[in-house]
Specification:
With about 270 residues, this protein is of the alpha/beta class. Helices cover about 25% and strands about 30% of the residues.
Length: about 270
């Protein structure tokens, strides 16, 4: 696997982006409607990441990765251990975001953590029809996950503060109930956008639909609300899949488009 960790600071926040799998070479055209297809230069490195933050003396994990070993191993390399994690913030429930919550025996990897997720995600996930529609392997996994999280899950059904300084912001479309998380700081905020942006083009053109979203029109509508907010606040932005480490900012160019500035361009 390529470099596993990328450490950063933002104001009074310390963080580490954790690579949970090797990058995948994909074409941006896989995600774009025909009217927005690129003629060339469409291949890019699609990253798989989650993120650890040390925030106001709390150990916080945003999403948990594909498996029970990679993320804890990365954390241990910076002297953070699973039992230290106070809060796990889940953007949605795809396997690359939640499979790392469970140990091999089906118990929680982060036993002392409160786990936060959108109510719409949880309601959909726990509905008998959803579980019955899954293949046997995925059905077994999600049933184990639901049982394990039952006593530590906190559901958010609107934009709201999860705890002091951390805000849950609904941003549905990629998946029902998908959310982003905003962290206050001494200056500009830090915002983890989950799967809102599979590529910088979706941040630069928020009205462009990602055709692989569950509800592409809703996903674009969510980005049209989110992107101006990110640009106006000058937030540091983290993303799960923009090329590693997936950190940048947005500047507004005109009424409908923005410029993605990756971390090295904003230092």
């Amino acid at each position: 696997m390529e470099d596993l960790l990328y450490s950063f600071t933002h104001e009074d926040i310390e963080g580490v982006v954790i690579r949970i799998a090797d990058d995948e070479i994909l074409s941006i055209n896989e995600f774009l409607a025909e009217m927005h297809q690129l003629d060339e230069g469409d291949e890019y490195e699609f990253a798989y990441t989650c993120c650890y933050l040390k925030y106001r003396n709390r150990h916080i994990l945003i999403d948990a990765g594909f498996d029970p070993d990679t993320t804890p191993g990365a954390l241990e390399s910076i002297d953070v251990y699973p039992e230290d994690i106070d809060l796990v913030l889940l953007t949605h429930a795809d396997r690359d975001h939640v499979a790392g919550l469970l140990m091999h025996d089906g118990t929680l990897n982060y036993p002392n953590a409160q786990h936060i997720i959108g109510k719409a995600v949880w309601d959909h996930l726990t509905h008998p029809e959803t579980l019955d529609s899954l293949d046997n392997e995925r059905g077994r996994f999600y049933r184990k996950l639901i049982r394990a999280l039952d006593e530590s899950i906190q559901l958010c059904d609107r934009e709201m503060d999860v705890t002091d300084g951390i805000r849950f912001i609904p941003s549905p479309g990629h998946r029902e109930g998908h959310a982003v998380y905003q962290f206050e700081s001494t200056g500009t905020p830090l915002v983890h956008t989950g799967d809102s942006f599979f590529h910088p083009l979706f941040a630069e053109h928020p009205n462009w639909a990602n055709v692989t979203d569950n509800i592409p029109i809703t996903g674009a509508d969510s980005r049209k609300l989110l992107v101006p907010r990110l640009a106006e606040s000058k937030a540091m932005i983290l993303s799960s899949h923009i090329p590693f480490p997936g950190i940048g900012r947005l500047e507004q160019i005109d009424s409908e488009s923005y410029q993605w500035l990756p971390l090295e361009s904003t230092d």
